[in-house]
Structures are given as C-alpha cells and as structure tokens.
Amino acid sequence: MTVTDSRQPAAGPGAEVAAIAVTGLVYAFGQTRAVDGIDLTVPAGEVFGLLGPNGAGKTTAIRAMTTLLKVPPGMIRVFGRDVARDRMGVRRLLGYVPQQLSADSGLTGRENVALFARVFDIPRRERAERVAEALEIVGLADVADRMAGTYSGGMVRRLELAQALVTAPRLLILDEPTIGLDPIARTSVWERIDDVRAATGMTVLVTTHYMDEADQYCDQLALMHQGRIRATGTPESLKRDLAAAWHDAGRDAEPTLEDVFRHFADSELLGDQEGGTFRDVRRSRHTASRVG
Amino acid sequence: MSAVPVTPPPVSAEAAPAAPVAPAAPRLLYKPAEVRTGWRVLPTRMAAMCAVEIQKLRHDRTELYTRAIQPALWLLIFGETFTRLRAIPTGGLPYLDYLAPGIIAQSAMFIAIFYGIQIIWERDSGVLTKLLVTPTPRAALVAGKAFAAGVKSVIQAVVVVIIAALLGVALTWNPLKLLGVALAVVLASAFFSCLSICIAGIVLTRDRLMGIGQAITMPLFFGSNALYPVSLMPAWLRVISKGNPLSYEVDALRGLLIGTPSHLPLDFGVLALAALAGIAGASALLGRLAK
Known about the structure:
The complex is a heterodimer of chains A (292) and B (291). By secondary structure, chain A is of the alpha/beta class.
C-alpha cells in the first residue's frame, strides 16, 4: 500500500515460469514417509500458504525446496531450475527463514544482516547501504547496533526477515514465521512481508497453522495432511467449496478457513472417500468456472 | 549498474509535502546481487566467516581473557618449576624457552578442538541451516569456519607470546618469522577445528562432543613434542607423535620463535595437508548436521 509504484519487475520472457514447480515429491526418513507424493505449483509473484497440522510434512517439503534435503532430479524446480542439478543457482534466488528464531546472539542486528549480504556476494560498495535499507524495511534501524541477543522474539523474526531480504530474493520461503509471537508482532511481521512483496513482486511461500493469517494474507493455499496435498485454491474458493458441500449435506452455515482445515485434517477418520468427493466437487467447479 | 531504477533522492525538500509519509522506496533491495563464481567464492566466504569471528570477539572479550589463564599457568608453574629441575634435555635452552612454543600450540589446539560445539549450537539455533541455504559450497563454508577458528587461535597465540616475553623467554621479533608462526597456528587450528566439526557431524550433540574432545586433547598434547623432545619417548609413542599434527606445529613454532633446529618445509607441508584433509572430511560430514 505504501511503496507501490511503477517499478514492478519487468514481465520479460520467462515471466510465466512458476516460482516453484513440484512433481511427485517423495521424501522418507527411514520408514516414515514425511512427504508422500506431492504436486504443487506456486505461481510467481503470489503469497502462497502451505497449511497443515503438525507433522503434515510441510517443513520437510520446504527443506527439500531449499536444497537442504537431497531429492532426485526432476522433482522440484525453482524458477525453472532443478534443485538437484543447480543447487547454487537455486540458492541465489532464495531467502529462507527457518522455523527457529535463528539470529546469532553474539552479533549486532546489523552484523547479522551484513553476514548474509557478504555470503550472497553483495559488493562492498553497496553492502552498507543495502544492509541499512533491509533493517529500515523491517523497522529495526534504531536498534541495529544492539546485540541480537537482547532482541525480543518479534524483533528477531524481523531481523531474520531483513537477513533474507538484503539479498533481494525472488522467492522468500518462510517456515512458520509467526509461531510463538504475540498478535501485534505477528501483524507486524506480515505487514513487512506484504510491503516488500508489493514493492518487489517477489514470490512468498509460507507455512503456518494460523488460519486467520492464511485467510488474510495468502493469495493461494495448499492444505497438506499426512504427507499429501489435500486441497488447493484461494482462501475464498476453499471456503466456498466447503459451504457448497455443507449446503448439500443440509447444513447452512458460513465455513471459516479453520473449518476447511478441520474438514481435511479430520477426513482421514472418515476414510479417503469424503476427501475425494470434496475434491471432485471443487475440481468440477473450477473446470466449470474456467469454461464459463 | 544499469539495472538500478532511477529514483528521486529519499529526502528531498520539494517532494516532502507531496508524498504523504510514504517511506523512501528501498532502491537497492530491488536489485539482485551480481553473481560471483569460481575461485572468488572461497576467499570471500572465508573473509565473511573470519569477520564474524572477529566481531564476536570484539563484543565479548571474556573468552579471550579466561583462555589466557591456562597457558599462563602452564608457563608460570610448570615452566618455572621444570626450568629449575633441569630434567628434560632441551639442547642447552632454558626449559621455559623450550616450553613456550609448545604452550602456544597447545592453547591454540584447545580452542580449535571445541569449535564443533559452536557448530552444533549454530545447527540447533538454525544459524547453520540458513548458511547452508546461501550460495556457499559446503567446502567453502567449512574452510571459512576453519580459518575463522584459526583467527581466534592467532589472537590467543599473540596473548601467549606476550606472556612468554614477559617471563623473559628469548623470542624472535623478526616479522617474517612471526608471520610464519601465525600461518602455522592458522593451519593447525584449521585442522583441529575440522576434526572437531567431523566429530560434531558424527555424534551430533554437545555433551558427547565435550566428552570426546576432552578424551583426545590430552593424548594429542602429551603425545607430541610440546613438553619434551620426542627422543625421550618410548618407541610406540614416537610413532604416534609422528602422526600427530601438533608435533609438526610445535616443531615449526620452536624453529621460528626460538631458533632451534627444525624441519620447516616438512612441518608446513604436513600442516597444510592436514588442514586440507580436515576440510574435506568436515565438508563430507556437514550434511549430517543439515538434516
């Protein structure tokens, strides 16, 4: 809302390339299949939410996308680059904020950000300015020279955001960015993400289990459960579809995203049947809307 | 540079009233960094890691001071006593002079051998995870960390050299020789810190690493020529000492600082090879810490 202007990245050739394209991703830890065959497309420029209960496989999927876990070639592409074949190329495009609060407490905020500017080869002549800009954007300019160990949880999270943003990533991957934060800090983190996205047109992939956040800030969602993607769509379409299913079942209420989430997380108990039906309903609706 | 969007200066007198509190658009953050590849990756990453280590030491010097206590005690108590005892054949040198290079090497090794604890802490806190997602090959990351540990050890060595000089040890002040001392300390620390990272990659927890670190430091120290000439050792220990990089480090330091007969080319060759092998091993095992 604040920094929107004409300087959107040019829609050059390759603008239609998906930020992330996942096909048939499987990842197992020993006998446990944490990710059990997912297909996923994250369009460039969107805020994409990967939702799911604890243990759904979200973090494993993300770690595979960030090259932290080794996967065979052909499973994951980031802006057209295969993560198995071109690790360094993929990493150059990425900003990654892991689930833990991971600032180095023995350094100041500014030094924490500068380290990432350095390891992404930002030339010395623009390093200081970039670092200052990144700190400014996350609202830490005033405390930049304090030790990160003295920061609150919300400040550390914003510092991590600055660490990721200082390299001008095309894809920002956030794993549970607001976990353990108070409501004000949560809003503040999301607003920074929103601002930067609006200004730079970068793609954001975020996992969360706060449904209100997903509803408010994500353009598209994928619901993950037990290693599989159970549903995808915009928050509105997911709610609309469940409303329709409810309506057919004679229940007249306005479902929230939380209801959608619960519907898919619980559908295991009812067997795959219902999930399947629901998906079919949704798919046919999508087809209908596309055709119509 | 051509990709930089042209923006009005952020603080402009005429523009100020027109724009209602819109923060200045972050110009540079739109622009991805130039890609640096090939041989330049390694030195830049090493510089980055060393810079972090120096920044940390600058913020918190307690480690520097507390770490100086042990070598000071070795020189003061052990050194002074054994100088009087004259039990160790040092080839005419005062024992304190003979001991000083050994204590420099030992104190540097003690720092490096527990470097893996920091790596495990970084892994547990997510700092390492984030570094692994940067365009940094693992070997460059490990080499960076190894030489950062070396920087720490060199600072430690300077402290011990000063203590030794205060105790009256006749050290060289030839800058070239001192540079050689720094190089030997850096290479040996790179090896020992990589050894530590290797152990960290295998045991994965701080407690186990502490235990193993403590179990190996004393054999490394006593199984070297740091305290006494190798010629005094029983034959089996001599063999072990031949394979102990610490012995080569001490030999080089003694030759450079005190001027005893030494085998500098062999010493530096072994230390360089050990450092390389350490970096290779630690890079291979770092993946276990990433999981």
